[in-house]
Write a structure and sequence with these properties.
Helices cover 46% and strands 17% of the residues. By secondary structure, the chain is an alpha/beta fold. The N and C termini lie close together (8 Å). The model has no long low-confidence stretch (mean pLDDT 90).
Length: 337
């Protein structure tokens, strides 16, 4: 009997392959049930997110992991190349890998917290379905403890590592709290969407979207739970806004000093965060000279995100020490084989 992990993720497989193996919540229930009927599998947990699909199992026999890979490919009707696509871990390496995943150390965004909840959900599904026993129950409980310890005793999740996240952090430094704040998004592209969602996650309650194509503004507004305004009318919204995100494809400045000057008295000179993530820039740099305006461009945001990534990477050695220390405490036959 031995513990194994078989998976693929954003580092080993292109998106068209990851899509083939991705599983919805409904499919995961079925996959876990079917996995337990596979030859040699005694226990199993299936984890599937947008960037990874992994199978943790306790198997019998020397050929257990190869049979598991064959079974997975057959389930997905996958006949493409397997070279470099899958990774395999056994015994202690499998246990340590699970701890890294739960701690956000193996994520596309180093230190992200969402994966912790996704791992817990995957384990709960298998636990309630009777697919876990002594080995995986102990292992996953240990991994959850490691994830919490890593986040408590290291700085792996400090500092935003994306432009959207850096925008939010800068806004919070000005306002202290974004609860109830109002946001205008100029442009309806992917970066606008990510930044608007990041602001919403920190408490922004009102999101307004404008775009030269009004239909695209409506689509984005509906997607993020905001409202759309015609491009000719966005200036009227400045009087009550807290944050402006500009990300259009315009070849010239869209937001100019006179736009802000016209509403300063109505605003009672309240602080205004302006985030320009467009290239060429959407916001005239002279807007940043207005006393209560805090203007940040894409270079500033990328620099801040890069600095945060470096700080997080420096924490990895400390995280590894925690994992080794905690796995040393695990007395599982499948780990120590």
């Amino acid at each position: 009997m031995k513990l194994v992990c078989l998976g693929l993720n954003h580092e080993t497989a292109p998106v068209e392959v990851r899509e083939r193996f991705a599983l919805s919540d409904v499919a995961l229930d079925r996959e876990t049930e079917t996995l337990m009927t596979a030859a040699e599998v005694e226990e199993g947990v299936v984890l599937s997110t947008c960037n990874r699909t992994e199978y943790y199992a306790v198997v019998n026999g020397e050929s257990g992991i190869e049979e598991l890979e064959d079974w997975i490919c057959k389930q997905r009707d996958y006949h493409g190349s397997r070279e470099g696509v899958f990774y395999h871990y056994q015994a202690r390496e499998a246990a340590e890998h699970l701890c890294r995943v739960a701690s956000g150390m193996n994520s596309m965004v180093l230190g992200e917290t969402e994966i912790f909840g996704q791992v817990k959900k995957a384990y709960k599904r298998s636990l309630e379905g009777g697919a876990t026993k002594l080995v995986l129950n102990k292992l996953f409980q240990r991994a959850f403890g490691v994830g919490k310890k890593v986040r408590t005793h290291t700085a792996i999740q400090e500092g935003a590592t994306s432009v959207a996240g850096a925008s939010v952090e800068l806004a919070e430094k000005v306002f202290g709290c974004l609860q109830g704040s109002s946001v205008l998004v100029i442009g309806a592209g992917d970066m606008s969407r990510k930044t608007a969602r990041a602001l919403q996650s920190r408490g922004a309650s009102s999101v307004i979207v404008t775009n030269r194509s009004y239909d695209k503004a409506v689509d984005l507004a509906e997607e993020i739970g905001g409202r759309a305004v015609h491009f000719e009318s966005w200036e009227e919204e400045l009087a009550h806004l807290d944050v402006v995100i500009a990300a259009t494809g315009a070849p010239h400045f869209v937001v100019k000093p006179q736009h802000v000057e016209a509403v300063r008295r109505k605003r009672k000179f309240r602080p205004l965060i302006m985030v320009d993530i467009a290239v060429p820039r959407d916001i005239d740099p002279e807007v940043g000279e207005i006393e209560e305006v805090y203007l940040y461009d894409i270079d500033t945001l990328q620099e801040l995100a890069g600095q945060a990534r470096k700080r997080r990477e420096e924490q990895l050695l400390l995280c590894e020490d925690i994992i080794r220390e905690e796995i040393d405490k695990v007395t599982l036959p499948a780990v120590n084989d």
